[in-house]
Structure formats: structure tokens, C-alpha cells
Amino acid sequence: MAEYNFLVVEDSPTMRQLITFSLKRIRGAKIFEAGNGVEALKKLSENKFNLIVADINMPLMDGLKLLSIVRKDPNHSTVPVIIVTTEGADADKEKGMKLGANAYLPKPIQTNELLKTVRELLKIED
Amino acid sequence: MDKPESGADLFKKTREFLEIFRKGEEFTQDLLKENERLRFKIVQLEEEIKAVKKGVDGSPVGELQEALKRAQEEKQALVDRFKEVEAENKDFASKYVEVEEENNNLANLYVASYQLHSTLDFTEVLRILQEIVINLVGSDRFAILLLDEVTNELTAVAAEGMDEKRIKKVKVGEGVIGDVAKTGESYFEHDVEGFKPAHELEPLVCIPLKIKDRIIGVLAIFSLLEQKSKKLNRVDYELFSMLAGHAATALFSSKLYSVSERKLTTIQGFIDLLSGKGK
């Protein structure tokens, strides 16, 4: 069975639990959690990930900064990144996509949408 | 006067006549043969026609026609079955979507409930409640008001998108918020898109926070996030219904716990003082 390492970067415990809870529905999923960009970088230095789900608005280091660092890091530059944010504004979406995000989900996120996006990005059959 | 014919002439004419007669006989013979051949051909054709006529009523053309008829019936049955399977597939697909939506709803409800009861710290419960309303409901402007049973007034204890200190106290029975606190019935503005509040504190949604029939406060939602502003979904109503009970219990129990902790600390202080430990 294929194994997938997911990194969930979200400062809100409620959202983090919701995303983690949803990703666990994917067979072989192993979830790592981080409360902000700095914690995420630590996890990235210790593990290889198949996909990152990151909030934009976070303390210490936001999701966009994290994304730009990830894209410059040769070890993780190709990892698919899904950006999640409260803002529905196109500006944030554009910023994220320009920095190399693979998908964008506005809050309140629909877990079925999240799973669909993850499956598409990783080409996982239902 | 004609000369009498000589014997040689007569002989020659006789021979010519005989020759014509012989050719006539040969021609007659040929006609008889042709007649015979044609009669034979007619008999043959009549037999073929008989065979064909027999074939229509029995084998082998009749059998083929029967087989063709059966094949057509089978084909029709298969086409009907295919249509049935296709309809079943569509039904399964729509059921799958429903199940996925239900999963989404349950995940939201589970997480909200789990988080609300994950702590006994009143401030933490308030923060979690705010997170739920922001992240799961999708509101950018709301307030949580608690009821003071002595003054019969609702006071804002937390707010998002507005300063709770600026929210005036609301008397029970006053306006939509006061009315919800009085009746214990949720208020929903169904035309979310066309909602035009008359004043700042006119809510889009107002949920009573109650434990059984005891109302401890209300959650008033004034606006939703831009991407959420079209309509309220089924999960929103389920979340509101869940919040009405669970948020109230979590807030109430955490408040009781804080009070009891404070009392415990005070009593412990007295005990320490009396036993001389506090010196």
C-alpha cells in the first residue's frame, strides 16, 4: 500500500484537526502537524512530504513566506502545496499561485473539496 | 413453247426438293429438342419455387428468421438492462455525493464538538467558539453575549470583526437578540444575499446558547465571509443547532470550573492560614 506523508500547517487547532481528520480518510496517510511556518520548516528538515496544506494567515511565519521558501528548497521544491485561507480575495489567491501553490481552498473549507484536490494532485484513485 | 424437261432436269429438281425436305426435317428435329430442353427447364424452376416456398414455412430460412427474431428480443432486453444499470450508476453517483457531503458535515460537527469540550478554561472555550464560527461557519463579524440573570441583560464577552466593548448591553426581549434570549428560538435571515441590516446590531443569524431550557446567552452573527455570502447550507444549520447546546454546556461548565477553582484556591488559602502553612 502506498504511503503518503502530509504536512498540515495551520495555527487554528480547530482547522488543523478538521484538515487532519479529513486527510486520514486517504489510505496510507501519515499526518504531521505544524502551528506556523517556522514549525513547518523544522518538520520539512526532518521528513520528506508528498503534500503540504498550509494556511496563509499564521503567526511567526505565514503560509506565503513558507511557500516561497519551500519552492526555493531543492529538497521540497516539487512538493504540491494547497493554500487555505479565510480571505476569499483574489489577491491572496493570485499571490499564492504566483509563488507556486498548486491549489487554493477558501475557508470555510469543504472537506470533500479538500480530499478531491489532494487526490487529483497526487493522482490517487478514490 | 416450253421445251419438255429432260430426265436430268427432273432428277436435279427431285434432289433439290429432297434437300429442302431434309433441312426442314432437321429444323423440326431441332425445334423438338429445344422444346424438350425448355420443358425440362420449366420443371426444374417449378421444383426450385416449391423448395423456396417450403423453406419460408419451415427450415432453413424460417429457422434463420426465428433466430433473428430471438436475437432482436435479446438485444432489446440487453438495451433495457443497460438503461437500468445506467440509471443505477447515476443513482449511486448522486448517493456518493450525498455521502461525501454527509461526511463533510459530520467531520465539521465532530471537530467542533471535540474542540469545545477539550478544555475547562473559560477563555479558551470562548476562543474555540470564535474559531468554529470563523472557520466552520464562515463568519467575519459576530458576537457572543452572555446573560446576566440578575439584571436580565445580555453582555458581549467576545466578538470578531467588531469591538465587544462597543456592543451595548441588550435587555431580554429587546430586538432580535433580546427576543432570541427570551424565546429560546433561533433566528435566521433566509435571504442571506439580499440582507440589508437596519442597524449594526441586527443579526443575520442569532442562536440561543441553552442548556435544556435554561438560556445562558446568544451567539449573534452579523455577516458572513465574502465567499460564503450567497446562502446558508444544511451543515450551517446543523452547526448552529449543535453550537446552541454544546457551546452553552462548554461555556457554562468552564465558568463553573473557574468559579470552583477560585473557591478551592480561597479555601486552600484559609486552610493554609489556619494550619500555619501560610506564614
Give an account of the 3D structure.
The complex is a heterodimer of chains A (126) and B (279). Chain A is of the alpha/beta class. In chain A, 41% of the residues lie in helices and 21% in strands. Chain A has five helices and five strands. Chain A has a five-stranded parallel sheet with strand order 2-1-3-4-5, sandwiched between helices. In chain A, strand 1, helix 1 (13-23) and strand 2 (29-34) form a beta-alpha-beta unit. Chain A is globular, with a radius of gyration of 13 Å. Chain B has 279 residues and is an alpha+beta fold. In chain B, 62% of the residues lie in helices and 14% in strands. Chain B has a six-stranded antiparallel sheet, with helices on both faces. Chain A binds chain B through residues 12-15, 17-18, 21-22, 25, 86, 88-89, 106-108, 110-112, and chain B through 100-101, 103-104, 107-108, 110-112, 114-115, 128, 131-132, 134-138, 140, 225-228.
Name the chain pair with the biggest interface and residue counts per chain.
A-B, 18 and 24 residues
| Spatial sequence of strands, sheet with the most strands of chain B | 3-2-1-6-5-4
Shape of chain B: rod-shaped
User: Helix proportion of residues of chain B, in percent?
Assistant: 55-70%
Number of strands of chain B: 6
Task: Give the mean pLDDT of chain A.
Answer: 88
How many helices of chain B? The count is: 5
Q: How many individual β-strands of chain A?
A: 5
User: Shape of chain A, please?
Assistant: globular
Number of separate helices of chain A? 5
> Spans of chain B of 5+ residues with little confidence (pLDDT < 50)?
none
Distance from N terminus to C terminus of chain B (CA atoms, Å) equals 197 Å
Element order of chain A: H for helix, E for strand: EHEHEHEHEH
Structure classification of chain A: alpha/beta
Q: From N to C, what is the helix and strand string of chain B? A: HHHEEEHEEEH
